[in-house]
C-alpha cells in the first residue's frame, strides 16, 4: 500500500463523508480538503492519526495545488447540485484546476464519480456537465478512473430523501412521464466499495466503468418498492404529460425538504434512461450488490436507528456574513440589532449542554412550536428551506450541519453554539447559545439573537416581530432550562451583550 496520502475533495459531502472513514479503516493515509477547517475538524474522523485537514477551494488553483502536493492519488467528488446560472462554468473551472494541480503534484491517478447517461443532446444539463467534467479531467496527463452511477440509494441522499417524502406523504402522486424511464440504482455502500477498491486494482487506472445494482426498473417501480418496505398502503401513480420539470420541482419543494433549486436538476436527470452498458468492474472488484429492495430497507433501518452518517443538506461551504465575524457595527456597514435573554440553573455546563444541542428536528424548539412551524411553512411557500430539513442526528451537531432553517456555524462543547439563519429574510440573522459555569452546580445560559437588516423592509421586519421574539426567546430559554431536570435559579431576564471592538480572523473565507 502506498505510504503517501490520498486526497479527498468533497470530504464533507454525502459520499465523501462516508468514504473517508472507509479509507482510514483500510489503513490508508488520507488528506481531506475543504473550504472550512472548522467544518472538517468536527467530523468524527478528524482526530484520526492518519488524517490531514487542508483548507483549499477547487476554484482557487494555488490552494488546490498546495493540497495535492505530496499525495499519490485523488478522489474528485465535486458537483454543483445547488443550481446557479453559471454552474456549468463553475464545474468546468474546478475540473481544469484539478487537472493542473494533479499534474504539478505528480499524482498517479484521479478517481471521479459522475453520472450515467448517453452523451447526446437529450441529456439533462447537470448530467451533461458531469460528463464534460470527466472529459476535462481525462484531457490531462494524469490517468482518470471514471465511475458512472445512476441513482444512489442510501439514507440521507437527495434522491432517496425526495422519494421518501413523496411516497410517505402522498397516497396519490401525479408525476411527469419520466416515471416510466428505466434506471439502474445502486446502494451507497456498493459505490463506496468501488471507490475504495479502485485504489488497489491497477487495471481500473484510466478506465471508465458503469456501476449499478442488480435491478433494472422504472422510477415508478422504485416508488412502489419503497412504499412496500415502509409498510405503507398501495400508492397510486398517475403520469401527467403536461407536468414539466419546473412545475415538478416546485411541487417537490412544497412536499419534501429538497429545495426546488436541487429538485429541478434531479428531476431533469430522471427523464434520461440510466442503465449500465457494461459491467466489467464487477469482475475486477467483486462484491455482493444489494437489490433496490435491500438498499431501501437498509436506509430505512438507518433512519429508524438515528444512524445517518451524512446527509445531502449538510454538504457545501459555509457562507459566513462578514458582520458575524466582527462586533463593530459601523465596520459591518450598518446597525446590528440584538435581543438577549439569560437564566441561571442548578446544573453544570456539561449537564446543560445536552438540552441546548437537542434543538430542532423532532424535538422542536422548546416553546411556541406552532409558531416555529408556521414560520417554516411561510418560508417554504416563499421558496426558502423551511423546517423540513430537520437535522442529521438527534443528539450531535457538527459545524456545517443543517438544523431546520438554520446552519450550524460553531460548536464548542459545552460552551457555545452558533446558528446562521437560512430562511428567507430581509437581512441576515444569527442565534447564539452560550453557557457559563458560575461555580459548582450553577450555569448561566444565554440566548442572543442578532439581525443585520437590509433596506427599509428589514427595519420593519425587526421592529414588527420584536415583541413576538421577546416572548418566544424568553419562553424558549425557560423551557430549555427546565428540560435539564435541574432547578431554575433565576427567571429569564434581558441582558445587553458586551461589544467586541475588534474583528477576529474568519477561518471560513
Strand composition percent: 15-25%
Q: How many strands in all?
A: 20
Structural category: alpha/beta
Shape: globular
Unreliable spans: 328-332, 501-509
Determine the N-to-C terminus distance. 35 Å
Major β-sheet profile: 7 strands, parallel
Report the total helices: 16
What do the pLDDT scores average to?
88
Helical content stands at 25-40%
Radius of gyration: 24 Å
Q: Strand order of the main beta sheet, please?
A: 3-2-1-4-5-6-11
Short description:
The protein is an alpha/beta fold and 509 residues long. Helices cover 36% and strands 20% of the residues. The longest helix has 28 residues, at 455-482.
Report on this structure.
The chain is α/β, with parallel strands linked by helices and 509 residues long. The protein is built from 16 helices and 20 strands. It has helices at residues 16-25, 37-41, 61-68, 87-105, 125-138, 158-169, 188-198, 219-229, 245-255, 260-270, 281-284, 292-304, 329-332, 349-356, 369-381, 455-482; strands spanning 6-8, 30-34, 51-55, 73-76, 109-115, 144-149, 152-153, 172-175, 182-183, 186-187, 208-211, 217-218, 236-239, 337-345, 402-403, 406-412, 416-421, 427-437, 443-453, 488-494. Strands 3-2-1-4-5-6-11 form a seven-stranded parallel beta sheet, sandwiched between helices. Strands 15-16-17-18-19-14-20 form a seven-stranded antiparallel beta sheet, covered by helices on one side. Strands 7-10 form a two-stranded parallel ribbon. A hairpin with a 5-residue loop joins strand 17 and strand 18 (427-437). Helix 8 (219-229) packs across helix 12.
Amino acid at each position: 500500500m502506498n505510504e503517501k496520502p490520498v486526497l479527498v475533495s468533497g470530504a464533507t459531502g454525502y459520499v465523501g463523508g462516508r468514504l473517508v472513514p472507509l479509507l482510514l479503516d483500510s489503513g490508508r493515509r488520507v488528506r481531506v480538503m475543504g473550504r472550512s477547517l472548522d467544518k472538517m475538524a468536527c467530523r468524527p474522523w478528524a482526530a484520526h492519526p492518519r488524517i490531514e485537514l487542508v483548507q483549499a477551494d477547487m476554484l482557487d488553483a494555488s490552494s488546490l495545488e498546495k493540497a495535492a502536493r505530496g499525495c499519490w492519488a485523488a478522489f474528485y467528488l465535486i458537483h454543483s447540485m445547488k443550481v446557479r446560472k453559471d454552474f456549468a462554468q463553475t464545474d468546468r473551472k474546478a475540473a481544469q484546476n484539478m487537472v493542473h494541480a494533479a499534474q504539478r503534484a505528480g499524482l498517479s491517478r484521479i478517481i471521479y464519480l459522475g453520472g450515467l447517461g448517453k452523451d447526446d443532446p437529450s441529456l439533462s444539463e447537470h448530467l451533461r456537465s458531469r460528463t464534460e467534467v470527466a472529459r476535462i479531467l481525462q484531457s490531462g496527463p494524469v490517468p482518470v478512473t471514471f465511475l458512472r452511477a445512476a441513482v444512489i440509494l442510501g439514507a440521507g441522499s437527495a434522491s432517496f430523501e425526495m422519494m421518501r417524502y413523496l411516497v410517505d406523504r402522498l397516497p396519490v402522486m401525479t408525476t411527469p412521464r419520466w416515471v416510466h424511464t428505466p434506471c439502474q440504482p445502486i446502494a451507497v455502500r456498493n459505490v463506496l466499495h468501488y471507490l475504495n477498491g479502485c485504489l488497489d486494482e491497477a487495471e481500473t487506472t484510466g478506465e471508465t466503468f458503469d456501476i449499478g445494482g442488480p435491478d433494472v426498473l422504472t422510477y415508478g417501480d422504485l416508488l412502489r418498492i419503497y412504499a412496500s418496505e415502509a409498510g405503507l398502503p398501495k400508492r397510486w401513480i398517475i403520469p401527467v404529460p403536461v407536468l414539466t420539470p419546473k412545475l415538478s420541482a416546485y411541487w417537490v419543494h412544497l412536499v419534501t425538504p429538497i429545495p426546488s433549486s436541487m429538485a429541478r436538476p434531479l428531476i431533469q436527470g430522471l427523464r434520461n434512461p440510466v442503465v449500465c452498458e457494461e459491467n466489467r468492474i464487477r469482475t475486477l472488484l467483486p462484491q455482493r450488490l444489494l437489490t433496490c429492495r435491500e438498499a431501501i430497507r437498509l436506509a430505512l433501518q438507518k433512519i429508524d436507528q438515528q444512524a445517518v452518517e451524512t446527509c445531502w443538506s449538510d454538504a457545501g461551504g459555509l457562507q459566513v456574513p462578514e458582520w458575524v465575524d466582527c462586533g463593530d457595527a459601523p465596520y459591518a456597514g450598518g446597525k446590528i440589532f440584538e435581543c438577549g435573554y439569560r437564566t441561571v440553573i442548578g446544573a453544570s455546563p456539561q449537564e446543560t449542554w445536552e438540552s441546548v444541542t437537542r434543538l430542532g428536528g423532532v424535538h422542536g424548539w422548546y416553546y411556541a412550536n406552532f409558531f416555529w412551524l408556521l414560520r417554516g411553512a411561510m418560508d417554504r411557500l416563499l421558496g426558502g428551506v423551511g423546517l423540513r430539513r430537520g437535522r442529521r442526528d438527534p443528539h450531535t451537531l457538527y459545524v456545517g450541519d443543517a438544523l431546520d432553517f438554520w446552519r450550524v456555524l460553531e460548536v464548542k462543547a459545552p460552551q457555545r453554539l452558533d446558528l446562521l439563519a437560512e430562511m428567507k429574510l430581509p437581512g441576515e440573522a444569527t442565534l447564539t447559545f452560550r453557557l457559563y459555569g458560575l461555580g459548582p452546580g450553577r450555569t448561566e445560559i444565554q440566548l442572543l439573537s442578532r439581525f443585520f437588516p437590509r433596506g427599509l423592509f428589514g427595519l420593519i421586519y425587526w421592529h414588527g416581530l420584536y415583541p413576538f421574539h421577546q416572548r418566544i426567546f424568553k419562553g424558549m430559554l425557560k423551557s430549555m432550562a427546565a428540560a435539564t431536570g435541574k432547578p431554575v435559579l433565576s427567571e429569564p431576564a434581558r441582558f445587553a451583550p458586551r461589544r467586541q471592538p475588534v474583528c477576529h480572523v474568519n477561518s471560513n473565507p
